């Protein structure tokens, strides 16, 4: 099989595209999967110039979301401006964070077990210390009922941290 995003031949795996129809997803290669879950390498994603025009709505949605994550790249901004989606598909693209996704201050998706870095000094209520900017928090847990909260251990204390004050490492 070939990857729905980069067209690489070989083994693919199902990747769910959230915020739309149940069971919606795409078949992607391991390289694409690893980067979607982590940090994007801009050179790899030039393939979106062709995959964004796919007839499959889930591929269009994922391509649009990836272009948004790559917005600091001129070529990605140009492609995003060219991409036209009907109202229903655009609503699906925009629905990403409303379905309970935990995202960091840069919009990167957080998953349990990730390592994040604090981007601001945070006073910890009830613990009598301040978690300093630049502190790495390893093995985070997601607060399932609130996409703006994660839990992690800082200075031996398990604390709740707002996702807007962290970036994925």
What is this entry, summarized?
Helices cover 25% and strands 21% of the residues.
Draw up the topology in text:
Elements: E1 13-16, E2 25-28, H1 30-37, H2 48-51, H3 57-69, H4 74-82, H5 87-94, E3 116-118, E4 122-124, E5 129-131, E6 136-137, E7 141-142, E8 149-154, E9 157-162, E10 166-168
Antiparallel strand pairs: 1-2, 3-6, 3-10, 4-5, 7-8, 8-9
Helix pairs in contact: 3-5
Overview of the molecule:
With 169 residues, the protein is an alpha+beta fold. It is built from five helices and ten strands; from the N terminus they run ββαααααββββββββ. It has helices at residues 30-37, 48-51, 57-69, 74-82, 87-94; strands at 13-16, 25-28, 116-118, 122-124, 129-131, 136-137, 141-142, 149-154, 157-162, 166-168. The strands form four sheets. A three-stranded antiparallel sheet has the order 6-3-10, with no helix packed on it. Helix 3 (57-69) packs across helix 5. The chain is elongated. The mean pLDDT is 91.
What descriptors fit this protein?
alpha+beta, 3-stranded antiparallel sheet, 5 helices
Shape: elongated
**Which parts are unreliable, with pLDDT below 50 for 5 consecutive residues or more?**
none
Q: SSE string, helix = H, strand = E?
A: EEHHHHHEEEEEEEE
Helix content: 10-25%
- Quick one: how many beta strands? 10
Q: Can you give the mean pLDDT?
A: 91
Strand order of the largest sheet: 6-3-10
Tell me the distance between the termini.
Answer: 32 Å
Largest sheet features: 3 strands, antiparallel
Cα-based radius of gyration, to the nearest Å: 18 Å
Individual helix count: 5
Structural class: alpha+beta
Q: Strand percentage, roughly?
A: 15-25%
């Amino acid at each position: 099989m070939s990857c729905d995003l980069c067209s690489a031949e070989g083994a693919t795996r199902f990747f769910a595209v959230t915020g739309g129809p149940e069971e919606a997803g795409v078949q992607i290669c391991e390289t694409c999967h690893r980067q979607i879950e982590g940090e994007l390498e801009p050179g790899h994603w030039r393939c979106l110039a062709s995959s964004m025009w796919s007839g499959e709505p889930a591929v269009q949605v994922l391509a649009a979301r990836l272009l948004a994550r790559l917005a600091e790249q001129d070529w990605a901004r140009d492609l995003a401006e060219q991409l036209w989606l009907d109202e229903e598909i655009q609503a699906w693209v925009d629905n990403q964070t409303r379905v309970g996704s935990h995202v960091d201050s840069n919009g990167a998706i957080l998953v349990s077990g990730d390592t994040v870095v604090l981007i601001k000094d945070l006073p910890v209520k009830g613990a009598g210390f301040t978690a300093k900017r630049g502190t790495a928090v390893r093995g985070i847990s997601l607060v399932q009922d609130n996409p703006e909260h994660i839990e992690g251990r800082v200075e031996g204390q398990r604390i709740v941290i707002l996702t807007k004050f962290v970036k994925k490492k």
